[in-house]
Design brief:
alpha+beta, 5 strands
Amino acid sequence: MAELTTLESLLEMGFDRNRAEKAVANTGNQGIEQAMDWLMEHENDADIDEPFVPPVGNVLGGEAGSQSTTEQPSLADTAEGTAVGEGSYGDDTSARMPMSEDEKLEQVRRLEELMRVKQAERRERERAEELEREKQRRRDGQELQHIRQKLQDDDMKKLSDQRMKEKMEDKMARQRVKDKIARDREERALKFGGGPPSTAASSQPAQPRPSSPTSHGPPPTKKEYDESRIQIRLLDGSTITAVFKAQEPLAAVRVYVQVNGNTPEGQDFTLLSPYPRHVYTELDMEKPLKELGLVPSAVLVVAKK
């Protein structure tokens, strides 16, 4: 039986003639599969239904077979050459035999089955592509969320450090005021509390007299230091030295290191005494330097947490 041309097959399957002609022309009349693939890929094009103007010399499905020369057979004639014998290769008219209705229906059925297979493959490919795009969107969303969370954590840490620094500075200022008041009281007590008894030069031994509580100055006391000179060894091996009030908390030293110690931003650290080794905790940060035995001088080491 004679096979339908690509154009005829597309028309039998129900495709619009304008679209079918475009598909055959754009695939070079290479077969029904290529034409159907082209139609499915371009069915949503904006210009798919614009009138088709075939290029000069183009042959669609053998419709222009009568215009082709014997020296240059058309694509349709070449494709249908297998349907005729060797002796009738050049007889274009006799090679085409009309198809019965059953034969046409059978060929259309095969083509429709092929089209369903192609459409199923296309849907599966589109589902796979959509799934991959959705995975990529999720990956991008997770990465963006991670970046936002990191920026938020960094902002919160900076805010916490700033508040802690302000709190320590305020506490240090209050402590300095208290120390000044205490020194003023001591100076007034020494000034108005009386001095040591004066001794009169006499050759006769003086008779002992009961002494009043105010006849003598205050008893000698152990020397008190109100400042501490602290040397701090930083993470990079360098050292800095600063003087602090004896009543200032250890947290003041920590704040000083944060501001002047070239510590990497966001790097958490602690302080320790090398000899004997003692790591200071958060509770120690609230204690005065005097209470921690860091007066009148001490050496501290900055260590990573």
